[in-house]
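re: the backbone from monday

yeah here it is again, tokenized this time
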């Protein structure tokens, strides 16, 4: 911890707190933020409770700056408003925590340290690290996060991450500068869409273990209402990621394995289905040769798809891009 405090003295850390219907908790969250943070942005996302004005009238912390969105933009829009304010103030690292008191501000340096030490560009919380602690998590959230995590692995390419909807995050501002702000989803899909955008930048993302914490707050995220929307957006991001990483930016053996695998599996399925339908219609057994002709492309195609999947899993970004950009700037300044 002492080393972390020394690091933070030379690094300007900011905290963004989206504020929407969290008036009952926001002051407690702010008061728990330690001295390692030099700026706190409370983003009033057109809050019906007037949380921005409430903070201005009741908070004496000089680090706090209230930023207002004229229209409600959702959690993603609020966070990006905070990001822009941090860029304008020349911050180095921006931590995002919620204003509902679910996230412990004492963990801020746990999220910031890997970025300072050059191990990551972006860190996010993982409430599933301790199997004993997750028993406190409501079962519907547990199931929903497990399903969303698998879809996120496919669409984002970060196969070693879990708990994708966790909003406790930290990011280096050199990475923020390269995010397409106008394209990122601004509501419940924000955290997941961020991972997809980060992968297209080849940013390094790691999980930070944290406990699940639930108090008297109510979640606005209803799994039953967003599952269809999430499926569509995950499929879209998966297609984009595959095109960007395997055909537009780079070509590899995996670029051939995926289409060949899909083609062979589809051919085997259609060939086998056609003979099965014909066999059922005429009430005659399908010849063994036809069965093998259907099974062989499916088997080979599956092997191609597994090979592609193995390559995709192993190609998770491992070199923090904010360090590369820092070195690039140093080189230009020395010339």
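seq for it, each position gets an aa:
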């Amino acid at each position: 911890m002492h080393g972390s405090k020394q690091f933070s003295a030379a690094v300007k850390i900011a905290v963004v707190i989206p504020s929407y219907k969290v008036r009952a908790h926001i002051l407690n969250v702010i008061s728990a933020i330690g001295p390692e943070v030099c700026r706190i942005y409370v983003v009033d996302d057109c809050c019906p409770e007037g949380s921005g004005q409430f903070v201005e009238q009741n908070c004496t912390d000089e680090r706090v700056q209230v930023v207002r969105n004229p229209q409600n933009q959702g959690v993603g829009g609020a966070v990006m408003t905070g990001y822009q304010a941090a860029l304008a103030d020349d911050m180095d690292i921006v931590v995002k925590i919620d204003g509902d008191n679910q996230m412990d501000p004492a963990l801020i340096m746990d999220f910031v340290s890997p970025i300072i030490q050059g191990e990551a560009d972006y860190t996010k919380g993982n409430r599933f690290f301790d199997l004993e602690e997750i028993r406190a998590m409501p079962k519907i959230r547990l199931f929903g996060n497990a399903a969303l995590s698998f879809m996120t692995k496919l669409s984002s390419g970060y196969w070693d991450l879990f708990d994708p909807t966790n909003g406790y995050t930290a990011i280096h501002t050199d990475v923020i500068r390269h995010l397409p702000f106008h394209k990122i989803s601004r509501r419940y899909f924000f955290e997941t869409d961020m991972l997809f955008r980060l992968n297209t930048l080849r940013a390094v993302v790691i999980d930070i273990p944290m406990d699940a914490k639930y108090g008297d707050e109510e979640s606005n995220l209803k799994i039953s209402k967003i599952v269809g929307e999430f499926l569509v957006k995950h499929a879209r991001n998966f297609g984009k990621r595959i095109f960007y990483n395997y055909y537009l930016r780079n070509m590899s053996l995996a670029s051939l394995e995926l289409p060949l695998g899909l083609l062979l599996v589809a051919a085997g399925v259609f060939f086998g289905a056609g003979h099965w339908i014909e066999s059922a219609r005429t009430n005659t057994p399908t010849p063994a040769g036809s069965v093998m002709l259907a099974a062989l492309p499916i088997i080979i195609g599956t092997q191609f798809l597994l090979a592609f999947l193995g390559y995709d899993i192993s190609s998770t970004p491992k070199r923090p891009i904010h360090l590369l950009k820092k070195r690039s700037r140093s080189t230009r300044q020395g010339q």
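The first helix runs from residue 2 to 10. Confidence is low (pLDDT under 50) at residues 1-6.
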